[in-house]
Design goal:
The protein is of the alpha+beta class and 1423 residues long. The chain folds into eight domains: 153 residues, Heat Shock Protein 90 (2-Layer Sandwich); 199 residues, no CATH class; 140 residues, Roll (SH3 type barrels), CATH 2.30.30; 145 residues, Immunoglobulin-like (Sandwich); 115 residues, Immunoglobulin-like (Sandwich); 98 residues, Immunoglobulins (Immunoglobulin-like, Sandwich); 105 residues, Immunoglobulin-like (Sandwich); 218 residues, Alpha-Beta Plaits (2-Layer Sandwich), CATH 3.30.70. Strands 38, 39, 40, 41, 42, 43, 44, 45, 46 and 47 form a ten-stranded mixed sheet that branches. The chain has an eight-stranded mixed sheet with strand order 5-4-3-6-2-1-7-8. A seven-stranded mixed sheet has the order 14-13-15-10-9-16-17. It starts with a helix and ends with a helix. Pfam families: HATPase_c_3. InterPro entries: HATPase_C_sf (IPR036890). Keywords: Coiled coil.
């Protein structure tokens, strides 16, 4: 065999020839000669093993560890030879030697030698021809044993045994690694090749396995004893492979039984049975240790104690055998037929799986299966799963009934009782098994030792045979359902069919046995004589009833103080009583009292009886209360056996002080007659002495409520004795009712109703009316006592109660005189309402009252419903804001129902709008008014300088008119009560024009200006000056005047044209402003209509869509592209795996509750982090950008290509965060959908939480509903990965001041809502930022469950609001441009008027000269 291991390619041959007088053993190994290395002398030398030093080479390797370094002591061959015969000759030749060396051994020489050396003879010769032919490689070793001591060898058994021992060397499936069987060694016995032998335990056992997957384990053992620890030697190692093979039940027969039968047929005198069959065999270095026939290892035992499949697993574990292959790390016995019993590795292997014993062994065991390490718990779980898998696939409980089966679906209770795991069974009444017919109704005997019947024989009637599964199922268990003889027929197994045609099976008192009890011979049919004998024996010992001995019988037995069962006693009249019970047979007559103590009438069965005492209450108040229970075994008293004596009252005296009915229930469970019960009752009456009155309160309402001025709830009073039992009232007593608090009477009841119940046990007092005006002294708790007493106050009851004031009756205000006059928008700083009931008590805290207002509004979120405070007040100070206009009345009033209890009015200050500038009565059509001044004055005519527009839009003036040309979209600011309108155009149409000036926010401030529009001559309208067109005179005297006039006209015309052009631009601005105003109004109305078409809570997501729109507007960013990609993916419902792995942009993954928080967190993270792309894995992050071979970015691939398709580009760098690369938060996480982190509050050195601390940013944000369930492979969410990575433990405070005070407790940075940022490590961020990308603001937790219509509407609203914002910006620009043009118009108009004023003298001179010339010419004409 060493030759085979060293030269695996060489052919190895071994031959054993057995004759009558001689045994010859030949092998073709390397042989021996006279050299020192291969000396033949060592074969017979004690302690000269060639392999002892090489033992470590045989530790480890691959199973089945075919490394045959068997030699340990050096005398195995010599001892074995001398055991078989008296003389032995060893012939050996090596490949290199030409001679055969011989060694002769003699038993007599060994015995007679007195020296330590064994002197033997030897010789050298040439090889024989048959030796040459048998060893083609030129080497062999042959041992011839003569003078045999063993006679009559069974050659067949020897062949089988040799094949069993050396099976892996003869037939091996693991040498080539292909699963093909090889024959490494040709082993012959008397010329027969053992590979062709079909016998032997190993071959037969392998043949009957299920041929399914085996359960294979690798064990690595490490042993370190005391000597190893103290020295430098390495610990001892050992390896073992455990291969568990399943042997199924085939066609109703256990494969192990088939194996045992086959072995017996082959002549093996095996004495094992199915239960004692070897479940673990061991090989060491491939050689079987025949004496190592172990039972199941601990891990192969069933651990289940409960469950439907516990019994199935227990049976299936019996069908497993474990084949153990060990290496040289395990030490054998000197005979090499077993492992050394005390060796630590042997002990560890034998106890493998025993958790208790493993702790006491100094051997560490590593378990491997399929390349992975297992714990004991994991091993047990996988082993049980494998057993169930083998059972389901290969077990065939092939039992066929002789009748048609009934298919039944079992419930869990009956599955457990039947010991069956299947939900469906077939029920038969007749079967054939082992050549015999078994049918329902047969009386059988289950012998002790059978499964489920360990101590005694069981006599029963066979009811049904149950088979698992349906007929086409290949596996399943078969069970016998038997009813023990002592179980009545009506309590046996029953099959029922209900109205729904559903079949059910209830095992009830019957028992279930595996059908294997028939195969094992433990189940036999009873003979009629034996059945009759068992029935008679059963009748004689079967109890029928339970009887309670009377007091006279107890006295006769010297048992005093017997309790009078079924009698009447007074409460507290006894302290210790005894109850004696006996079991009576069926023939006992209860009327024959003289036989009650006859031993024949008392059964002496060794049964346990229980007595349970229950309090049933009174007739008028039935209840059930368990008092106590006691168990008793039969005893002997007065020579009578079978007495069950119970002691009553020793520890439970207090129970029998309570009046009422006591039930004594005696129970005994009999195996034959089932459960016997006997019920007796004892009536306890109350004592005759009155102790006190008692309030019968309702436990659900422990506090009695009394409200003054109304009827209180009824009160029930009982009269009780000294033990607390209810006693009847003799007559209806008179009562007094009052309310007390700390010995002070708060009030009395002046009226009530008193009546007595029909049984006179309860005194009912109803309609109790309490009046009191002193409740303010006991507020706010209002705790008091309701005292009900008899007229003589001998008996009274104090009931804890809560006395509360009545309803609101008086309301007064504690308002001081107003410090300042009321103005629109001002707040009433002090207004407190005092509320009292009709008796003058302040109303209790928490009462809700509706406050109604006119012209006022509530500033807080509480609305009109207010609660009364601790003092009985409602404080409205600083809550009411004036909404009415100047000069109006505002009021506060309080109504309860339709009745008004309070009303108070306030006057808002008077204000008036008037025009200061003088407006001409007549104005030319198409002209305009300039610098018109308006002012707001109070009631005495003083200008109200508080009307000041410090912020655009608060105090402005609008000019309106019914005629075209005046646009009300223009607003003019008030400055300290005055407003100057620089330009008011006059209409082109003549007539009366009313120009209305009105305050933009206070329409009551308005004034009308009436203007008469008249038409002017055309030249004045066109040029703005009086045209001078001198006539063409022939006289040359006019030329000079005419040149001057023409020059003035030309200059004036040019200036007039400049003014007209400026006025034309202003008109264009007005037209454009009108169009923009109309567009703005249209957009506002459309937005309003769209908002009304969606649910109010859905508008909460509008800020999210605004932020998406804002990010999409950043065309040169990766975040913009990602937003477009995700939106397209959602709309197209694409299932791209890459898109599913991209989560989104940081800014859109969470929301916050306020804009201040959104702004400051965005400033802290900065825009590059807010726009970072978030994905799950590193692989997905790598797909977002591709590179060319030179390392440049490939803009035609990945995210850059998608950006190009969208008409965008990605400039600069962008951040990508993948969750798998983030180290998650390692602490605890709160339960709930948001999964907030458990972080300790910061503490100041004083131990207090800093003032103004709001929380940690990582917990303040709310995860978007769509990403709450987003998880990494490790199960971590966004909060503990992404946001903990971004924020860490960033703290949020209300103000900078609070944040600076808490600097000592800030470790990872902090922010404040008013703009403070502390980034940690001593870094502050100063200044003001206006981040464009922020977290969306959501004021409530709205789930993302929008319809596609709602999403489209919200997107449309977002677009319109963007357009509205752009329109508003354009209006501002247009107003600014109009204002610039208006200034230019005014400047040119002033220049034009100045020109006319300066040229007026010249024009007058020209006109005068002209008139003189005209006169002269006229006189000449007259002449």
């Amino acid at each position: 065999m060493p030759s085979f291991v060293k030269n695996s390619c060489a052919h190895f041959f071994c031959s054993v020839s057995i004759g009558e007088d001689e045994i010859s053993i030949l092998d073709t190994g390397p042989g021996m000669d006279d050299s020192d290395k291969n000396s033949l002398v060592k074969w017979g030398k004690m302690g000269a093993s060639l392999h002892r030093s090489a033992k470590r080479l045989a530790i480890g390797g691959k199973p089945p560890y075919l490394t045959p370094f068997f030699g340990m002591f050096g005398y195995g061959g010599a001892i074995a030879s001398m055991h078989l015969g008296r003389d032995a000759s060893v012939f050996s030749k090596t490949k290199n030697s030409k001679k055969v060396y011989r060694l002769d051994l003699s038993r007599e020489a060994l015995i007679n030698s007195r020296e330590k050396t064994w002197k033997t003879g030897g010789s050298i010769r040439n090889p024989l021809e048959d030796e040459i032919s048998a060893s083609p490689h030129g080497s062999f070793t042959k041992v011839e044993i003569s003078k045999l001591k063993v006679k009559l060898l069974d050659i067949n058994q020897l062949k089988c045994r040799l094949k069993d021992i050396y099976f892996p060397y003869i037939q091996c499936d693991e040498m080539l690694g292909t699963g093909r069987t090889t024959t490494p060694i040709q082993f012959q016995v008397n010329g027969d090749d053992l590979a062709d032998l079909t016998g032997g335990e190993v071959a037969i056992t392998n043949m009957h396995s299920c041929h399914g997957p085996d359960f294979v384990l690798q064990l690595h053992l490490l042993y370190q004893d005391a000597s190893t620890v103290t020295s430098s030697r390495e610990p001892q190692k050992a390896h073992a492979r455990l291969k568990c093979v399943y042997y199924p039940i085939v066609k109703g027969k256990e494969s192990i039984n088939t194996i045992l039968e086959s072995l017996r047929v082959d002549g093996d005198t095996v004495a094992e049975t199915f239960d004692t069959f070897c479940r673990a065999s061991i090989r060491r270095l491939g050689r079987l240790l025949p004496d190592a026939r172990w039972g199941r290892l601990p891990f192969m035992e069933s651990r289940h104690r409960k469950g439907d499949r516990a019994q199935v697993l227990k049976r299936c574990c019996m069908r497993v055998k474990c084949f153990i292959d060990t290496d040289a790390g395990f030490s054998p016995t000197p005979s090499k037929t077993d492992l050394a019993h005390r060796h630590p590795c042997t002990v560890a292997l034998k106890n493998f799986g025993n958790r208790t014993l493993e702790k006491d062994i100094d051997v560490s065991v590593e378990i491997f299966r399929g390349g992975k390490t297992l714990s004991i718990s994991q091993l047990e779980k996988e082993y049980e799963d494998w057993v169930f898998e083998m059972h389901d696939k290969y077990d065939e409980e092939s039992v066929c009934g002789e009748d048609d089966p009934i298919v039944v679906v079992l419930n869990p209770h009956n599955k457990k009782g039947l010991g069956i795991s299947s939900n469906v069974v077939r029920v038969h009444k007749v079967i054939k098994r082992n050549g015999n017919t078994w049918k329902s109704g047969q009386h059988i005997k289950i012998c002790k030792g059978a499964v489920g019947c360990h101590k005694n024989n069981l006599y029963a009637a066979l009811e049904y045979i149950v088979l698992e599964g349906l007929e086409e199922d290949v596996c399943g268990e078969a069970r016998l359902i038997c009813r023990p003889l002592h179980v009545p027929v009506e309590k046996g197994c029953v099959i029922e069919i209900d109205d729904m045609n559903t079949t059910s099976l209830d095992i009830r008192g019957s028992k279930s046995f595996p059908i294997s009890v028939i195969d094992s011979g433990k189940c036999k049919v009873m003979e009629p004589a034996e059945l009759k004998k068992q029935l008679e024996k059963l009748d004689q010992n079967s109890p029928s009833t339970i009887d309670i001995l009377r007091s006279k019988d107890c006295h006769q037995l010297a048992i005093e103080e017997a309790l009078p069962i079924d009698g009447t006693v007074s409460a507290g009249s006894f302290s210790l009583k005894k109850v004696v019970a006996v079991l009576r047979p069926a023939f006992f007559d209860p009327g024959s009292s003289f036989r009650s103590l006859d031993q024949k009438s008392i059964i002496k069965a060794d049964l346990e009886m229980s007595m349970e005492v229950t309090y049933l209450g009174e007739d008028y108040d039935p209840q059930e209360e368990h008092i106590y229970a006691e168990r008793s075994k039969p005893s002997v008293h007065g020579g009578i056996q079978g007495l069950y004596i119970f002691t009553v009252g020793s520890r439970n005296t207090k129970h029998f002080q309570k009046s009422g009915i006591y039930r004594f229930l005696f129970t005994v469970i009999c195996e034959d007659s089932g459960c016997l019960k006997c019920e007796k009752r004892l009536i306890v009456l109350p004592d005759t002495r009155v102790d006190q009155w008692k309030h019968l309160s309702d436990e659900k309402c422990r506090t009695y409520h009394v409200r003054v001025g109304s009827c209180s709830p009824p009160v029930s009073i009982a009269c009780v004795d000294i033990y607390g039992n209810h006693m009847p009232f003799i007559s209806s007593p008179g009562v007094l009712v009052k309310v007390e608090s700390t010995n002070c009477v708060m009030g009395h009841s002046r009226r009530m109703k008193v009546n007595l119940s029909s049984n006179r046990l309860i005194l009912n007092i109803s309609d109790i009316w309490i009046e009191s005006s002193n409740l303010d002294s006991i507020r706010p708790h209002y705790k008091a006592s309701l005292v009900i007493s008899s007229q003589d106050e001998l008996y009274c009851v104090r009931i804890p109660c809560q006395v509360t004031p009545g309803v609101v009756f008086f309301v007064t205000d504690l308002c001081m005189e107003l410090e300042k006059p009321l103005l629109p928008g001002s707040v009433i700083k002090q207004l407190v309402l005092e509320l009292k009931d009709r008796f003058g008590n302040h109303i209790e805290r928490g009462v809700e009252v509706s406050i109604h207002v006119e012209g006022l509004g509530f500033q807080d979120q509480k609305g009109s419903t207010r609660e009364v405070d601790d003092k009985g007040y409602i404080d409205l100070s600083g809550v009411l804001k004036v909404k009415a206009g100047y000069g109006n009345l505002v009021s506060v009033f309080l109504n309860i129902g339709v009745e008004s209890y309070y009303k108070k009015e306030f006057q808002v200050e008077q204000r008036k709008l008037r025009i200061v500038s003088t407006v001409p009565e007549y104005c030319a059509a198409g002209s305009h008014l300039e610098d018109v001044v308006f002012e707001v004055v109070d009631s005495v005519g003083m200008v109200d300088e508080g009307i000041h527009d410090s912020k655009f839009g608060k105090h402005t003036l609008r000019i309106t008119s019914e005629l075209p040309g005046i646009h009300d979209s223009l607003q003019y600011s008030f400055i300290h009560g005055r407003c100057t309108v620089p330009f008011i155009p006059i209409p082109e149409k003549e007539g009366i024009c009313f120009i209305v000036a009105v305050h933009s926010n206070h329409p009551e401030l308005c004034t009308n200006v009436e203007v008469h529009v008249v038409r002017t001559p055309q030249w004045q309208k066109e040029s703005g000056y009086k045209a001078i067109e001198p006539p063409q005179c022939s006289d040359g005297g006019m030329l000079l005047l005419q040149d001057k006039a023409v020059c003035i006209v030309n200059d004036a015309q040019e200036l007039d044209n400049d003014v007209l052009r400026a006025a034309s631009r202003i008109e264009e601005h007005e037209k454009k402003l009108k169009l923009l105003g109309e567009k703005k109004e249209s957009l506002e109305q459309q937005i309003l209509d769209l908002k009304e078409s969606v649910e109010p809570e859905e508008l909460n997501l509008l800020d999210y869509f605004k932020m998406v729109r804002r990010i999409e507007g950043k065309d040169n960013t990766a975040a913009s592209v990602i937003c477009n990609m995700l939106e397209f993916s959602m709309s197209q419902r694409q299932e791209d795996e890459c898109m599913q792995d991209i989560i989104g942009v940081v800014a859109l993954l969470a929301t916050v509750s306020t804009y201040d928080l959104s702004r400051i967190l965005a400033e802290y993270l900065r825009e590059d982090n807010m726009l970072a792309v978030v994905c799950k894995s590193y692989a997905t992050a790598c797909t977002l950008e591709k590179y060319k071979e030179q390392g440049d970015i490939d803009h035609s691939d990945a995210l850059h290509a998608i950006a190009a398709e969208l008409g965008k580009s990605i400039d600069g760098r962008f951040d990508v965060i993948y969750l798998e690369g983030i180290r998650p938060y390692a602490g605890k996480i709160e339960d709930g959908p948001q999964r907030r982190l458990v972080l300790a509050d910061p503490l100041l050195p004083t131990g207090d939480i800093p003032t103004g601390f709001i929380g940690y940013a990582v917990n303040i944000i709310k995860l978007d509903a769509r990403f709450i369930c987003t998880r990494t492979i490790g199960g971590h969410g966004l909060r503990e990965t992404l946001f903990y990575h971004l924020f860490g433990e960033l703290q949020v405070y209300k103000t900078r001041k609070c944040m600076k005070k808490a600097c000592s407790s800030i470790k990872h940075g902090a922010v404040s809502l008013d703009g403070g940022i502390l980034r940690g490590n001593g870094v502050f961020s100063y200044g003001v930022g206006e981040p464009k990308v922020c977290f969306p603001v959501s004021v409530s937790d709205v789930q993302w469950q929008l319809s596609s219509l709602s999403v489209s509407i919200l997107k449309e609203i977002t677009l319109m609001e963007s357009e509205l914002e752009a329109t508003s910006d354009e209006i501002k620009k247009e107003l600014k441009a109009q204002y610039v043009d208006f200034l230019e118009f005014k400047q040119k108009k002033d220049r034009y008027h100045n020109f006319l004023n300066t040229k007026e003298a010249v024009v007058s001179e020209v006109c005068h000269a002209y008139s003189q010339i005209v006169k002269t010419e006229s006189s000449e004409l007259d002449t």
